[in-house]
Design a protein that fits this description.
Elements: H1 2-12, E1 20-26, E2 29-35, H2 41-45, H3 50-65, E3 71-74
Parallel strand pairs: 2-3
Antiparallel strand pairs: 1-2
Amino acid sequence: MRELLEFLARELVDDPDAVEVVESSDDRGPVLTLTVAPDDMGKVIGRGGRTAKAIRSVVRAAATRQGVSAHVDIAD
């Protein structure tokens, strides 16, 4: 899931070298925290949060397909 999230974020932003995904765990299960350059934050979130919601949906669907759960947080 980490690689998928990193790939999606790198394709959206202007500075792909600044994309970082940190994997951790909490009471919800595995959590992937996405960090991007401050100038690219709007591109990852999208208008009204649509892009962020789509990213979360794709990662969640891929995780479900592999039989695990994953949650995506976008660090500001």
